[in-house]
Amino acid sequence: MKVIEHIKQAKETIFSFEILPPLKGQNIRDIYNTIDPLMEFKPPFVNVTYHREEVVYKRLNNGLLEQKVVRKRPGTVGICAALQNRYKIDAVPHILCGGFSREDTENALIDLDFLGIENVLALRGDSIKGETYFVAEKNGHTFACDLVGQISDMNKGIYLDEELKNNTPTNFCIGVAGYPEKHFEAPSINNDVQNTLKKVQQGAEYIVTQLFFDNTRFFEYVEKCRQVGISVPIIPGIKPIATKRHLSLLPHRFHVDIPDELVKSVVNCRDNEQVREVGVEWAIQQCKELKEAGVPVLHFYSMGKVDNIQTIAKAVF
Length: 317
Known about the structure:
alpha/beta; two-stranded antiparallel sheet; eight-stranded parallel barrel
């Protein structure tokens, strides 16, 4: 079932979350252990991230460095198939521009279609380590709106090979990312909203936002989207602070602001156990306000940890 259909049929705010594939060499049981505690909240769909290649360097005996390209978290497609089979819920794999040519994208989407996966989250993705700016794969997409366009074309039966006849259309529901505090590469929030509009015009059916800690920023973002004609559902992304290190890590990695009140509360904590309590309480208040405002879904970024999300969900749902 499509994400947009779950949203339309829901009588109240839906609970959903995102998981990371386990590190290479680990067992899918780790994923099940992450998901099992959250199933009591009846998530109709779960997002599964895709992690592109990384460049790592190994020091040789002669002192020189050997460059290797590795993927540390493979398995996105397999995990999606396993989740749909085990939990009877819909899996939403991330599809990236980075690391994919158009042909790679088409083949990946064919695999997902054959597996009965009806949802994808189309993202540009980050640059790989060592690149100052994002560099598209040869014959790949530079912008997420173009990736959305390719997926939309396949939904119409349009494939890259123009000589193909009697093509079977795919049937993907396409989600995209939104940034309440703007994408860090965008020159302004208004410019970023225009870029989001392009993704919707290409066929995106809903938006999932980057994590944020100030609901005002989310509400202002939704208003800006509505003003330019974006009418699709906008889903807020929530990530509770759990360690003091998050005060520097989250702004650096996700380019978000943390409100002064929350910063002061975390700084005054004596240990990370207390930080976790502060983060949970802040997220509970965030979620209650968002739910009261009628958001279609509360979407949580687990990053492999779910005990705090479980506590939040029990207080909100």
